[in-house]
Design a protein that fits this description.
The protein has about 400 residues and is α+β, with helices and mostly antiparallel strands. Helix content is about 50%, strand content about 15%. Keywords: FAD, Flavoprotein, Oxidoreductase, Transit peptide.
């Protein structure tokens, strides 16, 4: 028997055999989320995107809660307690459907729930986390401001003491889930530095007007948060969240999900390009039979599966408690950048059809333009890595 006959067959969908790195439970979670997205998102997402709305967000949140996808990697309080790799696989499948759906899950679990889980009091955890894990309450995370994105230390939102109460004033911008949230985790300046607050959205003085006219993340709810003399009791503050360490650790957790999610968008575009190349005929044969098209597909496959392998490696490091923020920056910088290039190359293979919502390519490409800059721009992650590599701080 020849050596080659003992080898498993080549799988075009998994050319590096990465599924062999996964346990049966990992594969089961991945396949469950993929099936849910195929049933509940893919038949409708082009229409949602075209209309610029996510009309079923509350129903989707409850269904995602039933799947265990909300606060998925957190332990206790009704959360699934899944591994970091399992959470990453879920993010990949959700973003393969649409970045807006992954953003819903990411902001709910990795930002709002994570902040309460890590920095909140036991009473805050008991009050909010079980209902958020079930999708009964949607959360949002208020850090970015109209004039302060990459420099959150300069935020103007301020919380002052009034007796035993806190009174918040300020504005937050580009807040996913804002206008449908039942609770907002809001970061504000205080006389003791930056602190986080758990803000019920029915509080007097709180409003969340939805942001319209977006050309990216259109199947997602994005809002401004306005805090006008919002009065909160003393126990609204997150007791363990002081300084920028609090919100930045939340962002690092959310960026990890993006490392996986971006590869989901890339995979969707790659698969669309392969299918199209095998069926679209020009000059008497499928365009997939031409050398230039095959070169594009080969390059796309290499970057796609390298990115998935990188995400898997970072997930294993997170599960082992060894993942550093600089490594998360490495993953987000690489994977989002390569995902955008894969989408753009797929568009060239589909030609004019690449701009049609009958195919997922342009939708993913425009979504990734937001993913590229939110939760840390390219430049910020380059500077994070630059500082780590040289020991020199170039931020200021």
């Amino acid at each position: 028997m020849s050596e080659s006959s003992k080898l498993p067959p080549f799988d075009p969908a998994d050319p590096l055999g990465l599924d062999e790195l996964l346990e049966p439970e990992d594969l089961g979670i991945r396949d469950t989320v993929r099936a849910w997205a195929a049933d509940r998102v893919l038949p409708h997402v082009a229409e949602w995107y075209e209309k610029g709305e996510l009309p079923e967000i509350r129903e989707l949140a409850r269904e995602l809660g039933e799947l265990g996808a909300l606060g998925m990697s957190l332990k206790g309080y009704g959360c699934a307690g899944a591994s970091a790799v399992q959470y990453g696989l879920a993010c990949l499948e959700l973003e393969a459907a649409d970045s807006g759906i992954r953003s819903l899950v990411s902001v709910q679990g990795s930002l709002a729930m994570y902040a309460i889980h890590r920095f909140g009091s036991e009473a805050q955890k008991q009050q909010w986390l079980p209902r958020m894990a079930a999708g009964e309450v949607i959360g949002c995370f208020g850090l970015t401001e109209p004039d302060h994105g990459s420099d959150p230390a300069s935020m103007r939102t301020y919380a002052k003491r009034d007796g035993t109460d806190w009174v918040l004033n300020g504005r937050k911008m580009w807040i996913t889930n804002g206008s449908v949230a039942g609770v907002a985790v809001v970061w504000a300046q205080t006389e003791d530095g930056i602190r986080g607050f758990v803000v019920p959205t029915d509080s007097a003085g709180f409003s969340a007007p939805e942001i319209k006219h977006k050309w990216s993340l259109r199947a997602s709810v994005t809002s401004e948060l306005v805090l006008d003399e919002v009065r909160l009791p003393a126990d609204a503050v997150l007791p363990e969240g002081t300084g920028l360490r609090g919100p930045l650790s939340c962002l690092s957790h959310a960026r990890y999900g993006i490392v996986w999610g971006a590869m989901g968008a890339a995979r969707s575009c790659f698969e669309a390009a392969v299918d199209y190349a095998k069926s679209r005929e020009q000059f008497g044969r499928p365009i997939g039979g031409f050398q230039l098209t095959q070169a594009k597909l080969a390059d796309m496959a290499v970057e796609l599966h390298k990115g998935i392998l990188l995400a898997h490696h970072l997930g294993r490091r997170m599960d082992a408690g060894r993942l550093r923020p600089e490594q998360v920056s490495f993953g987000k910088l690489n994977n989002v950048r390569e995902a955008i290039e894969i989408c753009r190359t797929a568009r060239t293979i589909l030609g004019a059809n690449g701009i049609s919502l009958e195919y997922p390519v342009m939708r993913h490409a425009t979504n990734l333009e937001s993913v590229l800059t939110y939760e840390g721009t390219v430049e910020m992650h380059q500077l994070v890595l630059g500082k780590a590599l040289t020991g020199l701080d170039a931020f200021r």
